[in-house]
Amino acid sequence: MSAGFDRYECDCTRTGYTGENCMTPEFFTWLRLKLKPAPDTVHYILTNFKVVWNIINNIPYIHSYIMRYILMSRSHLIESPPTYNSQYSYKSWEAYSNLSYYTRSLPPVEHDCPTPTGVKGKKELPNSKILAEKFLLRRKFIPDPQGTNMMFTFFAQHFTHQFFKTDHHKGPAFTRGLGHGVDLSHVYGETLERQLKLRHLKDGKLKFQMIDGEMYPPTVEETQAEMMYPPHLPEHLKFSVGQEVFGLVPGLMMYATIWLREHNRVCDILKGEHPEWDDEQLFQTARLILIGETIKIVIEDYVQHLSGYHFKLKFDPELLFNQRFQYQNRIAAEFNTLYHWHPLLPDTFQIQDQEYTHQQFIYNNSIMLNHGLSHMVQSFSNQRAGRVSGGRNIPASVLKVAKASIEHSRQMRYRSLNQYRRHFLLKPFQSFEQLTGEKEMSAELEELYGDIEAMELYPGLLLEKPRPGAIFGETMIELGAPFSLKGLMGNPICSPEYWKPSTFGGKVGFDIVNTASIQGLICNNVKGCPLTAFHVLNPETILTNNISNPSTSIDEISPAVLLKERSAEL
Predict the structure, then answer these.
(1) In DSSP terms, which residues pair with 2 in a beta bridge?
(2) With 550 labelled, which of 20, 81, 113, 269 sits at a CA distance of 20 to 30 A?
(3) 326 to 330, 336, 474: CA distances (angstroms)
């Protein structure tokens, strides 16, 4: 806080630190820091000693204790209620209450600071175009060593577009995703007006059309819900879904179609359980069930894969019922920025025996109709995505997005990479070489920035050396995980008031949530139940689509049973 024109004061209340700059740890803070292992040490332990973790995963009390610790230790790093936005570097009612802003973990750099990131570095930041072309542009595709695949890539893009919805008319600090979390607005629409255009208004279902005996989204012509398509596209290929940008690539429309089918499938189940319910109650309850399914899939499949942990992550809201935890969430601008994972994209997209360039892929819904969802799932499950951290792996076709991310970060006056590392309890980098793990790029970065304390957040996240055998560097994980887990577990359905069978239409609906998985989602909604995961499947495990009893409905067979049968066949 400023104290006159030439002085400042630091408020150390409840920080665990004292001194003029709140840098001197109190005794218990010092002790905790001494005893607490470094994040890299924790990561090493969790990603090794598989036999030990298999034992722990099967001891419920110990497993629940560790999972609770993971959730609380991560979530406590996110301020709730929110504190700042890009307009205010101090606490204000406006920063708290104005939902049209992304919130901020750290306040913006003051306008009168001597350098763009505070007091360190050069007076001007490097040219964003030069920065992107020299350090971020792909020379040669670098595959992700964790085996991340295109099913993960498109899930990440599809899932996050429900809450990363920057209002480009107002600027990068503003969002149109006023739900600020997992509300499935990408399935149902951001506004009630759009939702009603997409709804069938009968039996709780969403509008659909049948093509060759399979369910697909309706056309824009039928719903009159605005979508972003080029004018030359034929009307029958202009599908209409909750997120207006999902016509951009077939991978997004694939997931939109799968969730449409899942919603209508759940409505049929609820209708059978509750013939007395009207359209509105069926719709609203199905939406809550799909929100629950999404959170479970994200924690137990998506985050599980990203973590690389042998410890099995578990979605169990009851773990937090006796903890100090707030069931609310605001999406932070920094979370939006760090989630620009464009290095995931390959140079071309391979579906069956065809290869599509980026130019051939965009706004091409005919790919989904020509190949069908089953072949898309199989192909995307086995095409490897790119490594995100480490630099020089963004395809040329989307480099402009990376350049825009750098420029938007500067407009919002983000603090430096090291300032964010300190805020999330990480040791700051001492040099550019420590950041990148090599000499050539680090020397060039030092020439451009002048000081490691001036290194910007977004370029720093992409240029940081990855953890051994991992898709990300330390900072991406240690910043991203708290935002992610707080947003997921802070959802209203995870609260004691909501987390009960009656919220989801009884035991049947509650079971749908509690047994959800990415494989189950595919089995219930894609013909033939192709095997899938968020990592590349071993070619030897890719089996035919036959199951032991072809006359049995997919809905009647659990994914676990299918996988067991296929393992027996193998």
Answers:
(1) 8
(2) 269
(3) 12, 21, 27
Question: Are 253 and 368 spatial neighbours (Cβ–Cβ below 8 Å)?
Answer: yes
| pLDDT digits 0-9 by tens, 122-141 | 999 999 999 999 999 999 99
Which residue among the candidates 88, 216, 255, 339 is catalytic per the annotation? Answer: 339
| Gap between the Cα atoms of 262 and 218, Å rounded | 15
| Of the candidates 480, 160, 489, the residue with the CA atom closest to the CA atom of residue 319 | 489
Catalytic site residue 43? no
Tokens representing residue 479 in the block: 């910043």
Active site residue 161: yes
Q: With beta carbons less than 8 A apart as the criterion, state whether 306 and 144 touch.
A: no
Hey, which bits of 75-227 come out as E strands? 209-211, 214-216
**Rounded to an integer, what distance in angstroms lies between the CA atom of residue 536 and that of residue 35?**
38
Phi first, then psi: what are they for 130, rounded to 5°? -65, -40
**5-62 tens-digit pLDDT:** 889 999 999 999 999 999 999 999 999 888 989 999 999 999 999 999 999 999 999 9
Dihedral angle computed from the Cα positions of residues 162, 321, 503 and 61, in that order, rounded to the nearest 10 degrees: 100
Please tell me which residue in 63, 158, 161, 371 is annotated as part of the active site. 161
For position 540, what pLDDT does the model report?
A: 46
- Closest by CA to 425, choosing from 66, 105, 173, 108, is 105
